[in-house]
Design goal:
Elements: H1 9-14, H2 19-38, H3 47-66, H4 69-74, H5 76-93, E1 95-97, E2 100-106, E3 109-111, H6 113-130, H7 139-158, H8 162-166, H9 168-179, H10 183-204, H11 207-217, H12 228-240, H13 251-254, H14 266-298, H15 303-327, H16 345-367
Antiparallel strand pairs: 1-2, 2-3
Helix pairs in contact: 2-3, 2-14, 3-16, 5-6, 5-7, 6-7, 6-9, 6-15, 6-16, 7-9, 9-15, 12-14, 14-15, 15-16
Length: 369
Amino acid sequence: MIQPDETSLLRRWGNVNALPLVAALLLSVIGLATVHSASAELAVDYLPRQIVWVVIGALALAVIFLFDYHQLVDLAPVVYGIGLVLLVLVLIFGREVGGARSWLAVGPFGGQPSEFAKLATALLLTRYLAGVPRAYLRLREIFTAAFLVAVPVMLIVLERDLGGAAMYFPLLAGVLLIAGVRWHQLLAAALLALVLAAGLWNFGMQEYQRQRIVSFLSPESDPLGAGYQVRQSKIAVGSGQWTGRGYGQGTQSQLRFLPERHTDFVMAVLAEEWGFLGVLTVLGLYGVFIFSAARIAIRSRDRAGILLVAGLVSVFAFHVAYNTAMVVGLLPITGIPLPFLSYGGSFTLVNFLATGLILNVDYRRYVNR
């Protein structure tokens, strides 16, 4: 933790790039307003719950900022082990939501351990690859890193949460690219990915998940079934035009045509109410977050800091890119939410924890000189 005898705390904090924090807070405020509008016609107004999670997330960010990220990286095997235990408990005691057994509840409290395990995996990958002294990784090291990711991914696939499992691959890709891979290794990885995708289609996907892919390729084939969500999302996005219909005035959300509007399709609600300019503003804030975090990685003073931030930023960027493409029908629906905007307790908490780790790396480029 920060030691009492450390001097010039304010000077060091003044040199920290706080843009990721500013962007995260602004996105959270927009998310609260959009979640409130999206859930206005539901039986439950999700705004009070999301406010609680944003406050908890902000407190968690402050707490994790106090600890030197090197200490957290050293504890990565323990944290990773806890994450795996939680994933196994989900398979035994988990609650099924939306076709996936991905929730673990203790009394009135619950969450998705896959989100916590993702953060734990990022720390363990950082610990392992930071110890590699060479500019390029050997195949053995690449396979070891892939294995560390494959273990939680397989457990999450068994939970039938393919969207949650998919988020581990940009994490792996981000840290491997920064750690150093050769072009022929990338080509081999691409071929392996095609083989795994074919196997997943035939043996790892449920029928409703295959139907989502089919509806993506041809929404008109089942307009009232699997293709319903993407059709309604496109209508919502298109009806917003340049400036939107106004806050709380979206017909697709307020008349309940758009499913999952407070979670996976919150961007469609935003587009309908605030139009192209509103979406552009939100994407601009995401751009500020991602590029300022990438700048933190670039100016980090050690390999562990670079790898940790690179992995976390890769996950953030993939979430934003995939969800945005999903709501306009460019990619299949997989249940991938938007950071800070979509409703979700464990997801919001982990987003703030990841932001705290990113700021932690930037702050300690001075402490650990």
